[in-house]
């Protein structure tokens, strides 16, 4: 039995709040609150996979210090766009 969409959204939102570094604790919950509910299952699965990455790497990708891997490039770009529109 697969996870219900709304349960997956809630789980991923909680994982967005429980990060390893404070910067990502601020960036990801804001993004998750506005974007996860409208994502399809494939996008949610990619976001879930991205959350398994090291927080320091995620922060460098989001801030443009390093290029994101190709598999996450579009997602990281969307997070950057969200952050520009909703600065912390």
How would you describe the overall organization of this protein?
The protein is mainly alpha-helical and 88 residues long. The chain contains five helices and no strands. 66% of the residues lie in helices and 0% in strands. The longest helix has 14 residues, at 22-35.
Task: Walk me through the topology.
Layout: H1 5-17, H2 22-35, H3 41-50, H4 55-62, H5 73-85
Helix pairs in contact: 1-2, 1-3
Which features does this protein show?
single chain; 66% helix; mainly alpha
Quickly give the structural class: mainly alpha
Largest sheet: none
The DSSP helix count reads 5
**Share of residues in strands:** under 5%
* Shape, per Cα inertia axes: globular
The termini sit apart by 38 Å
Mean pLDDT: 95
Low-confidence sequence ranges = none
Taking all Cα atoms into account, the compactness measure Rg is 12 Å
Number of strands: 0
Q: Briefly, what is this?
A:
The protein is an all-alpha fold and about 90 residues long. The protein has 5 helices and no strands.
């Amino acid at each position: 039995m697969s996870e219900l969409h709304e349960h997956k959204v809630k789980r991923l939102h909680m994982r967005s709040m429980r990060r390893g570094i404070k910067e990502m604790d601020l960036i990801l919950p804001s993004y998750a609150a506005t974007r996860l509910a409208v994502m399809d299952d494939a996008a949610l699965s990619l976001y879930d996979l991205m959350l398994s990455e090291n927080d320091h790497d995620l922060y460098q990708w989001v801030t443009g210090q390093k290029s994101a891997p190709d598999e996450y490039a579009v997602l990281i770009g969307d997070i950057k766009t969200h952050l520009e529109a909703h600065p912390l």
